[in-house]
Amino acid sequence: MDSVLLYIPEAAKILKVSERLTWQLVKAGKLPSVRIGLRRGRVLIPREALLRWIANKTCGGEQN
Questions:
Q1: pLDDT given for residue 2 in this prediction
Q2: What DSSP string runs through 3-64?
Q3: For the whole model, what pTM was predicted?
Q4: Which of 32-39's residues contact partners 24+ apart within 8 Å by CB, and which partners?
Q5: Which of 54, 49, 56 is nearest to 17 (CA)?
């Protein structure tokens, strides 16, 4: 069973980009993410939101 939430390295593999670029997209608010935990917490990427984000990018959706 696939996880509902992905760690940054897992999302980067799906996107075929570096972890650094994935972090930059999250920090810029361009990639959907959730923060779990207190203070800094753990940043996770919802799998379904990531797949929708990819589909939006590949179907002539918003740029960037």
A1: 79
A2: -SEE-HHHHHHHHTS-HHHHHHHHHTT-S--EEESSTT-EEEEEHHHHHHHHHHHHTT----
A3: 0.82
A4: 34/5, 36/5
A5: 54
The CATH code of domain 5-58 reads 1.10.10
- How is the chain split into domains, by residue range? 5-58
pLDDT digits (tens, 9 = 90+) for 45-54: 999 999 999 9
Buried b (16+ CB within 10 A) or exposed e, 22-59: bbebbeeeebebeeeeeeeeebbbbbeebeebeeeeee
